[in-house]
Amino acid sequence: MSSYLREQLLDQPDYQADAELAGLTDYLISNLDERGYLVAPLGELATELAANPGTHSSLLLNLGLEEKLKTKAKSQPGSSKEKLIASLLEVQLQAALKLIQSLEPAGIGARDLSDCLLLQVRALQDLADKTSTNENIKKNLASKEVTSKELAQVNLLSQLDTASLKSFISDHLDDLAQGHLRQISLELDLTQEEIYDYLDFISSLEAKPLAGLVQPAEETIYIRPDLRLHTLASDYEADSKAKILRDEDQTEQKREGQKFLVSLDDASLFELTINPHYQELLVQREDIFDSAKSAKDKKSKELTAAESFYQKKLKEAQDLVQAVSDRQASLVRIGQYLADYQLDFFHEGIKALKPLSMDQVAQALDLHESTISRAVRDKYLASPWGIYPLRFFFDSGIENSTGQKIARRAIQARLHEIITAEDSNHPYSDQAISQILGQEGIPISRRTVAKYREEIKIPASPARRHKNL
Question: Which of 3.40.120.10, 1.10.10.60, 3.40.1010.10, 1.20.1420.30 is the CATH number of 397-464?
């Protein structure tokens, strides 16, 4: 999430977090996806925080966990310290999430689409209480606390049965997506006309809350890659980049046995060290500190407190240095796994991209899925063929007729080829493209073809007639 969107969320009158919740709230906001959803389970995030105290030392210091930990240990004897901390953190993360979900735009911090819509319904119910009279409506409109769209939504909501609406959203969105309106009608005891009233209201809600926060235009941002891909084959040097061109429609001959090595980009390499002055200070005054421990005068107590302060800050600095080193090492491991797994893509192009989930990588590298998600966010890999965001290499897909998995982008590339080669006087319908792909062993429905076509910004067949893409 950009710093602008983050500031828009935190700079609200309703945002009032104490010192304990502020850090956790900020942490959860940094984990929101591009829609504004918090997909990662709170238990998983709590475990990740507890397992990496060095990385999150400043956040954890404000939580006052030590006293709570003692109480928790008494109620759960035998549990490890890390597990107890994770249990405490999960409770506090729930409170932080509740605070985020109270912010504007309504729906922020939702766990999924159903949760997002229900949060908006709750917000509109609260708004209905504020605009219960014409006088209140005029005041809120004048102060711009309420928009005309929100008033229209409140009006629509007042005409619906709220309990049935919430049941519709929480239990029947899948039925709605599959067109099972009769089943919804029977289970909720609604007429067809009432169902369409519910649909009108639901369609007025925002499935992607962050879409309501428009980010101002910014200056061009130049991408600096975090990782670099090197070839290990002797007949193929990375400095041949000027002569090697490849895009989604171009492939090149596969070089058998060629492997790639991933490393941190030179511009990303830096050495984080601890100021030697403070390390030497502890060594030089070691005798003074030791003698002060046995004395009981005021000056000796002050010296003992000074040593404790120095030791604490030195430990925090050492943890930070180690955390940065660990994060860089994890990034390289993830990049190397992606390069090995997507080897065929680097040889043959987009049509050879394989489906891959973050969970697969997490299991292979013995890391948390949330760690993978944060590690690849806004990170880029430089290769001889261009710079790619690491998230590019994660893709959904399907199995073809031979059981081989094909990535969504690979299917889209083939779809683009089919449409590019069609007769512009008689363009293929989505159903025809579905049949062509089916004959090639790629079983996808007409609806999926339409979805993929729209994702790559290709219009439907009527709009393509007599036009060259």
Answer: 1.10.10.60
